UniProtKB/TrEMBL annotation:
UniProt KW keywords: Membrane, Transmembrane, Transmembrane helix
Lineage, opening ranks: Eukaryota, Metazoa, Chordata, Craniata, Vertebrata
InterPro entries named in the record: Synaptogyrin
Membrane-spanning segments: 37-55
Keyword Transport: no
Keyword Translocase applies: no
Protein name: Synaptogyrin-4
Amino acid sequence: IFSLVVFSSLLTDGYQNKTESPQLHCVLNSNNVACSFAVGAGFLAFLSCLVFLVLDAHESRIASSRFKTAFQLLDLILA
């Protein structure tokens, strides 16, 4: 949910136009790379949350103990 909040707030309020220019500028020091990185990081965090949600739902069906251990360890690290 936090990734959705960050992602949506940067998309809606991260770019604003100045009074003298109709072009949108990034609010993070007018650095487009900073806004692009933040939007990309928020999007990747949201996608990883969806992947882990699906894997959590199907965890009982995972037969390989090595994969299950690796999945749980990665889930713990990213959480």
